[in-house]
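Write out this protein's structure.
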Amino acid sequence: MNTQMNNSLFMAYATQKGGVGKTTFTVLTASYLHYVKGFNVLVVDCDYPQHSIERMREREIETVSSDPQLKAFAWKQFSEIDKKAYTILKASAESAEEIVKEFLNETNEIIDVVLFDIPGTVNTSGMYKLLSILDVFLVPISADRVVLESSLNFAKAISEMIKKIPKKKLYLFWNMVDKREKTELYDVYSKGIISNRRKPLQICLYGTKVNK
């Protein structure tokens, strides 16, 4: 692998449960890191065949191009930050590594973070290959029993896969938090998750990390 492949941080919001905001988190994180924090970000849309992020970008371009006011706003924004929009590549789980490697070999830009929007099921062809190249796994969890069990089983599988690779990190964070529910409920869940994990994890609750 070239220097870019070794130095870029590969990360993904990973879960086998659909509808938990994986694609939304990917777009928000990419935008925040690229436009606000100044990192150079590459997004790889591996959610074949719908490629939601790529389609979203196409709709945005079409909308902005047809509206003079939005076009002026976009020009002002990109002029002020002196950056182009982050690149989005389409790939499958099977082809993602090769497509990213080819892009990083050809670009003159230093890519700091590569964000993958991965398929919603671990049974997708090439998923193990894709997961094996990631440095950071971000697993959203919610207090819903079905979602929580599914997410924890997925996290357990990832934890087993990376336990012998110390540089890889796995983080769980609460999503879809219902403010009407008692904070103690999430505390109980967090403590239960931590106590049943052999590998150290980080649980994020309301922006606060619980490290064990």
